[in-house]
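Entry 14. Two folds queued back to back today. First construct below, sequence then structure tokens.
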Amino acid sequence: MRIKRRLPLVSEDHASEAGSHVRVFSGLGRYFQDLLGAESAVRSALRSHSKVRLPSKDACQSHVAVHVRRGDFGAGSQQSALSGVNNTATPLSVFTEVVQQVRAHRAKQRFLLFTDEPDSAEIQQWAEEHVVEFAPRGTALQHIFLMASCSGVVTSNSTFSGWGAYLGEGPALWSSSETKYARGNEQDFFLNRSGAEEFSRALSARARSSEVR
């Protein structure tokens, strides 16, 4: 609401007159499709209007973000997750498989866990068993930016991790290719297409690129 009060309202009819200064999106049919290419502008706008200090762009480059969403998501099976069933929790077994496959290619890879149930005994046990670190406490926007600062994002087919993937510059791994939250570019990988291995390769390629820079 604070942002809305500050910014002028522009109708779609007038948007074309403003040229490249206005980006129109509507319907949220594929969520981020209409905003592809505007990531930098969106990041800057959110930073300039945030009331809290947001993590830097490279705050967690050594980590891969893992988003385990529970809350309002119903219990689901691995089959339902891979089939792209909406509002269904991705089972921990799926994240276990991803962590193991990534570490098969990158043995020392660190993971940062984002979840709306950090006090869950099940999730705490899972994190300890697989040596996954919990993200520090923070606001939703701080967590989205911290997720975006990671070298890659393992999502929960959720708008929350969708925002982390969109605002970041690394690869994202989705459980299903049917998800509407994917960005629709070459940085999206899908578990139901054996994407964990491709995701791992993309992480390695990005690490090599960072070392060169």
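Second construct, same run, same settings:
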Amino acid sequence: MERNMLTIGELATKTEVTIRTLRYYDKIGLLSPRHYKEGGHRLYQEEDVMRLQQIQSLKLIGFSLKEIKNLLDKSSVEQETLHIAIDSKLAHLKEERDSIEKTISALYHIKTVTSNHQNIDLRLFCFVLYSLLWDEREKHSKSELSIQNFTEEERTKLDQQYFTLYTELKYLAEEDISPSSSQARHLYSNMQDLVKRTIIGDKFSSTSLVIPNEIFNPFTEKELRFLKSLTKHQKDQS
């Protein structure tokens, strides 16, 4: 009798289901072995393999184990029952696909944006990636600013420029460079020029990187103080 039977380990290997899962299926009565060896070792036969394949198929389209158990007690199932499950699974997979595609796009984007920097500020890097993946839609919907429309290529170039300017701002702040220095004035001029080319409004921002007054931003307190001092100095000079 045991010649054509499978041990639990053999069944797990054959179907790519873990032994732990098979033991759980046995425990809840979803898939119990037809026979046991001495010592309580489970033995499965061909009908058990077929039932496990049915379980895997129904689980794939989203049925719970309890629902699968009820379905397998029947010889047939209404088309609508299966089609509803399939449609739900398709919708879920499409959402996952869209999320994956968005993540891939964001990773390519940030790789290009940071490609000219040998050493990258981690806070700035994480802020950009977070903005691209999670915060961008919400931030734009709440912002009082209006961002001009750009092609993907144009936006990538602009974000590269913003990243470079923010990196320079961090450097000047860390080195305690005076806001009245030529370096600081040059930085401010470039920032203002870039803002004018990207933002419709009168507040400092960027296409996708930062609005410094937000709670979550890429700047430390020291860097924000430098930015405020720089802005104040330039206004006083104008």
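Quick look at the second one. The mean pLDDT is 86. The chain has nine helices and five strands.
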